[in-house]
Design a protein that fits this description.
The chain folds into 3 domains: 112 residues, no CATH class; 313 residues, 3-Layer(aba) Sandwich (Rossmann fold); 77 residues, Immunoglobulin-like. It is an alpha/beta fold. It starts with a helix and ends with a strand. It is 24% helix and 22% strand. The N terminus is likely disordered. Helix 9 runs parallel beside helix 12, helix 10 runs parallel beside helix 11 and helix 13 crosses helix 14. It is globular and about 80 Å long.
Length: 532
């Protein structure tokens, strides 16, 4: 059932090159998936995420029928851009004359117009709003401390083991700048893909993704430390920075399907849509209902697959015709993030709620006016925008999830909301307010972690992963130290006390335990043990 990354990419590239005449984009919806009953485009990590959250595979996980794709590809004067298993169809670029042939194919359910081919235009407004004034290297503390994420880091919670996909328009020089070097040195960049151009290289096109990533993943003490710097990452380009077209919502959809298949835990997206180069394609406020646009449906579907989606609310408050949140922020079960200044008041540019069906949207806010970033030129600057407040929340979520991997995406989301400063009296400007890590942590009642600075003894554990006996060894331990073994639901498996008689080499028997992840706590230290 699992699918290798090489095969996953190869299948996607087959639908690829984009050298088109002046045509239009359409989405072809298929009636069924008759040839895909046993084939799921997922990795073992994706399966594990669902197992942890008790989520079953369903019809939407079945791949698109390849015979249908092949039949569509044979229609003259047509190119397939991408396929979507969640929408069960393909995005094509074609002239209108081809649609009659397509609509008569027996497996085609419907054809939806998406976008005209237009010349390069304005690009995404979220990518454009940023300042370039020099910023003191030491001022990155506020953006972390305002969420009490510094307390999170004190507890050794930095997102380690959490897999985050960052969607953006480009990550120019992200593989060369100072604060992100640790990700590459520690092999924690797990996947890259540029959906717009169908290639794996993402380290070009635009600086915005690099700035965003540095807020989340940067680690340069004295200059910048991101909220979730210990996480694993997938960098995916879904935004075409040269223009603004509705097809970019389909790129985002494809990115979400990729993230799901890869086993990603969190999607961090500093992108949003409401207006396009061709104004006839602009969204209407009435669509801001959580169920209409393609990108909103994609975000909601990702949430139903157990992924926490964190998305920037938008920088368009000063646009009189559309001051509200951008899509997909109207999706349910996700976190839409606004921006505040250092007085915890709404940043002047930050979009507002509610959704058109009256829900509190956006959910939460974080510092977004003068955020410290490490840019593509390897300089430390300040930038402003909800593009930067969203990754700060993403890192907070990663640390919370690290504290208890048995939790679901909805439990993490709810804890963040319930910890926020205006939880009992939310408003349309900053939602439920600014989250507080300590409150969220206490709400989740995790018991596996203590403060890093209190940890003294060091232990060697091997082999890890373990199949039968785990050896625990140390040359420095305290007499009477207690140890506990938990599963990811917090259930205690066994416990004991370390003393001179028992602890030359202590061995724990994992033979009778099922495969999965366990937490071993020895005194004031904790370890993740993988049973195979």
């Amino acid at each position: 059932m699992a699918m290798s990354k090489v095969l996953f990419i190869t299948l996607f590239i087959l639908f690829g090159s984009r050298t088109f005449a002046q045509k239009s984009y359409f989405f072809i919806h298929f009636k069924d998936k008759p040839g895909s009953k046993e084939f799921f485009e997922v990795t073992s990590r994706s399966s594990l995420r669902r197992t942890h959250q008790n989520l079953k595979f369903d019809y939407s996980d079945l791949s698109v029928d390849t015979s249908y794709i092949n039949s569509i590809s044979k229609v003259p004067d047509l190119r397939i851009i991408l396929s979507s298993k969640w929408l069960n169809g393909v995005l094509i670029n074609s002239e209108n004359s081809s649609l009659k042939v397509i609509s008569q194919l027996p497996f085609v359910n419907s054809v939806t117009f998406v976008s005209k081919n237009t010349k390069d235009g304005i690009g995404n407004s979220l990518l454009e709003y940023q300042s370039t004034s020099s910023f003191d290297y030491g001022n990155a503390g506020f953006q972390v401390q305002s969420l009490k994420a510094d307390k999170m880091h004190d507890m050794c919670l930095n997102g380690a083991g959490i897999y985050i996909a960052v969607f953006d328009g480009g990550f120019q020089n992200a593989n060369q700048i100072q604060s992100l070097a640790h990700i590459f040195q520690q092999n924690r960049l797990k996947f890259t893909y540029n959906i717009v151009e169908n290639q794996s290289d993402v380290f070009s096109r635009h600086v915005h993704g690099t700035n965003v990533l540095s807020c989340l993943a940067g680690y340069s003490p004295g200059k910048l430390i991101g909220t979730g710097f210990g996480s694993d990452f997938a960098l995916i380009i879904t935004e075409d920075v040269k223009s603004e077209k509705k097809i970019e919502e389909y790129y985002w959809l494809k990115g979400a399907e990729m993230a799901d298949s890869l086993g990603v835990d969190i999607i961090s997206s500093s992108l949003g849509y409401y207006t396009f180069d061709d104004t006839s394609e602009n969204h209407q406020l009435s669509e801001l209902d959580g169920k209409t646009t393609v990108i909103t449906k994609a975000a909601a579907m990702a949430a139903r697959k157990g992924i926490l989606v964190v998305n920037s609310a938008g920088n368009n408050y000063n646009v009189n015709s559309w001051r509200k949140i951008v899509f997909p922020c109207d999706a349910d079960s996700i976190l839409s993030v606004g921006a505040v200044d250092n007085n915890f008041s709404k940043s002047s540019f930050s979009a507002i709620g509610p959704s058109e069906d009256g829900r509190i949207k956006l959910e939460v806010s974080a510092f977004g006016s003068g955020v410290t970033i490490n840019n593509s030129g390897n300089s430390f600057y300040s930038g402003s925008g909800t593009s930067y407040s969203a990754p700060l929340i993403t890192g907070l979520a990663a640390g919370l999830w690290q504290s208890n991997r048995g939790l679901t995406n909805i439990q993490i989301r709810n804890a963040i909301i319930q910890s926020s400063s205006l939880y009992l009296s939310p408003n349309n400007e900053i939602g439920y307010g600014i989250p507080d890590f300590e409150k969220a942590y206490n709400l989740l009642n995790s018991k596996f972690f203590t403060r890093c600075k209190e940890q003294t003894n060091s232990y060697d554990l091997y082999p890890n992963p373990v199949s039968d006996l785990l050896t625990i060894q140390s040359n420095n331990f305290s007499e009477g130290t207690e140890y506990y073994l938990f599963d990811l639901n917090g259930k205690e498996i066994t416990n004991g006390i370390i003393n001179v008689q028992s602890f030359a080499k202590l061995k724990l028997d994992f033979t009778y335990l099922g495969p999965g992840i366990y937490i071993l706590k020895i005194g004031d230290k904790q370890y993740k043990i993988v049973k195979i």
